[in-house]
Specification:
241 residues, Beta-carbonic Anhydrase, Chain A, five-stranded mixed beta sheet, 5 strands, globular, binds zinc ion
Amino acid sequence: MQITHSLRSLLLLALSATTWAASTPDTARQSAQQATTPQQALDRLVEGNQRFASGKPQARDLVTQVKVTAQGQYPTASIVTCLDSRTSSEYLFDLGLGEAFSARVAGNFVNEDILGSLEFAHKAAGAKLIVVLSHSSCGAVKGACDDVKLGNLTATLAKIKPAVAAVPDSGDRSSKNSVFVEKVAAANVRGAVAQIRERSPVLKEMLDAGQIGLVGAMYNLATGKVTFYPDTAVNVKAPAM
Ligand SMILES: [Zn+2]
């Protein structure tokens, strides 16, 4: 089989993903990652959020995890979420070190840099599931609704504007209308899920081949619970809302 230059580069990238911090790949952890299905990766997140929201997180020795994960990283999921200080995916899904890639940007949209990061996480480093996670009362979504202008933030909020336009509600379309804001946040998740397929041939190929899963979700700041959108799910079955 002829190995193309780009594939060879990816293989080198994957190798370096396991050896950035150490010289010996951990074959047991790598095998466990590769044996994980997209559905199993989602089930772990669902169970983790249930533990988080019910106040029963797993006991973890993070210092030990530092030592273990220094041998390489083999996460099973990547999570695109908001900059918001209350939406750290490791907390929300009760995860330890090395269990998920985390891509964060205000408004949890995808652009070239986020897509490139996801391509690394999945094509090079072997993760099995992509989650696009928004949250209630998102300040970035509110800013997009209100057409806020501020330095570089103006360009950031412009990425959320298509979601504002996608919600047809008449009446108050400002951040004062919390129902409208939540609809825009949901539309923004659906837009990001669609764009992952449309703008990343690398990820689309993996999704079409069933190698990875994809799902959108919403985090409720008041309850600590994540609700998945079953209609956005690709290659996984999300729990009913
Ligand atoms: Zn936010």
